[in-house]
Amino acid sequence: MAQNLEALSAKFRFVEKALADTYGRVTWQRHLPPVDELVATILSQATSDTNRDKGYLALKERFPEWDAAMNAPAEEVVQAIRPAGLANQKGPRIQEALRFIYDQRGALELDFLADIPLPLAKAWLTRINGVGPKTAAILLLFTFNRPAFPVDTHVHRIMRRLGLIGQNVSADKAHDILESLGDPEGYYSFHLNLIRHGREVCTSRTPRCADCPLRRVCDHFQIQVAGQSPSLESGVA
Length: 237
What we know:
Blueprint (H helix, E strand, L loop, with lengths): L1 H22 L10 H11 L4 H14 L3 H6 L2 H7 L6 H19 L12 H8 L7 H12 L8 H10 L8 H9 L7 H14 L18 H7 L12
Helix pairs in contact: 1-11, 2-3, 2-6, 2-8, 5-6, 9-11
């Protein structure tokens, strides 16, 4: 098992470097203040970035302060975020998250997450209804540059095709596995490059394997396209 993990870690580093060589390295910068990032990430669930942004901007226009959104009638929040999709689910979820933060902290702030141990920060966030490992990791990485590795649909698909995780590993479980393989300082750039690669090359239905800089270490390419055995054992289960 140790040899397999060592090989997978080397593969992880190769993929990170190959994508950095292809797309460049992205320097970390804070995206939004912590509570804003949490709300925006909830809005992003099961929708496009464009619709998320429309819903977020409409919500901020209607409720410039988060305490107003927290205390507003539920229907007003739902109507404000309608452009983001699934508003009937996301509206109550956002208000519940804001109330949880206020009840736990006495204020609508999350700055304390920058200083507590990472496992405790993840555990605290995932106590919020509707906040899973991906949302927690996005908040911690994008807002505080903490070494969390978000696994969205693009990252999950690519990592399974590469063989860095097993085919039956869920996206939630993949977070801890992938964080054990790489260099935390590269997570931000690597995460964004994986999303770009998933949108432009390693797409869901018809991946452009011939144009992929990862094909020589990709289990999917070697098995499905080249008709060869993969170069590594199967990914971590």
